[in-house]
Amino acid sequence: MNVTKIEFNSFRNIESEIIEFSDGINVIYGENAQGKTNILEGIYLFARGKSFRAFKDKELVNFDSNVAYAKMDFKSRDEETRLGVEISKSQSKKFYRNNVKVNKTSEIIGEFRAVLFCPSHLGIIKDAPSVRRKFIDVAISQLRPVYLKMMTRYNQVLEERNTIIKMNPQEREANEALIDVYSEELASLCADIADIRNEYIKKLDYWVKIFFNEMTDGREVPKITYESNGGEEDFENREALKQRYLHLLTDYKEREYKYGATLFGIHKDDLKIEINGRDSRLYSSQGQQRSLALAMKMAEGEISRESKGEYPVFLFDDVLSELDDSRKKYILSNIKNRQVIITACDRSVFENNECCHFINIKDGKKGEILNECIYSQESENGEISPETEL
């Protein structure tokens, strides 16, 4: 899967630009606050359906405009597709596929797949459980659109159940039967979602072990498992899993009334991440945490390739500046044979890498563009000399 080009109009600080990409490594470089991340944000918008950093859609629209546009062309198995989005300050955003409006954002999720790695992801190990749940939910949604529908319905039912739980005792008593209906549906959705998550985490654990082993020369062994408050056994037994969740949702309602919220369900689940049998959230060093985060993102790409038969697009937002030399080297040596779009302030870190497409960005506008392949070639006298093709 490859992005061939993206076009922006009034998107953040980008007034009007068309940016083309190569199939390999694309380096978007320039000083801070010039618009590099805005380009990745626009690309990832078509993978997830929303920004990875804006709280509201209207933040994506240029200050001097009321509407922003982005159009992206990409190839998947030699089939070309154009996705577009119209973002208004006053209305909901609208997505288009090959210039035809789609009814729901969920209809485009999974068509274009991307793995995003940005500095905030380096804290995924010690961050709150919600961050790790978001990681797996976003990754799975790109592979299984039905999962996104399950999560959407789950959140709707959860919100409606919480509304009743927060009522005063008299109102709550009048809606007791409705709480039971919601509990039944939540338990069913919990069983389905937890099973899918557990299946994904098993694959994640497999690939993380491989990448982490390469980074640490086998000195440390990670382990990732799914922590469910519905129990961690027999995920494949859907009915038993549903009954465990239903037991929690029906037998502990008084506790939920006290706290004013649903206390059990997949919205409370987490990933258990260990290194050599120890909880990495408590005992891992910063270096170990960063290696784990990197391994998880590389693993996400491999699972996507296994599932769909081709790599997703990798988007790295200034992540190299946050890593030490060994981890930088590891990334650069493991991003071949796939499309990578990476932002950086300084392009020099890539100058010993083969075949990079450099795009300079200043004030939301592209400047110098180079297709540069740097490699070594023996000269006639036997010496090694660099050769650069522009």
Description of the molecule:
By secondary structure, this protein is of the alpha+beta class. It has 10 helices and 16 strands. The strands form 3 sheets. It has a 7-stranded mixed beta sheet with strand order 8-12-13-3-14-15-16, with helices on both faces. 37% of the residues are buried. Residues 374-390 have low confidence and may be disordered.
Largest β-sheet summary: 7 strands, mixed
Structural class: alpha+beta
Residue share in helices? Answer: 25-40%
Q: Strand sequence of the main sheet, in spatial order?
A: 8-12-13-3-14-15-16
The overall pLDDT, averaged over residues, is 88
CATH fold-type name of the largest domain: Rossmann fold
Give the number of domains. 2
Radius of gyration: 23 Å
CATH class identity of the largest domain? Alpha Beta
How many runs of DSSP E, i.e. beta strands?
16
Total number of helical segments?
10
Instruction: Tell me the series of helices and strands, N- to C-terminal.
Output: EEEHEEEEEHHHHEHHEEHHEHEEEE
User: Low-confidence spans: pLDDT under 50, at least 5 residues?
Assistant: 374-390
The rough form would be described as globular
Beta-strand proportion: 25-35%
What do we call the CATH homologous superfamily of the largest domain?
P-loop containing nucleotide triphosphate hydrolases
- CATH 2nd-level architecture of the largest domain: 3-Layer(aba) Sandwich
Head-to-tail CA distance between termini: 25 Å
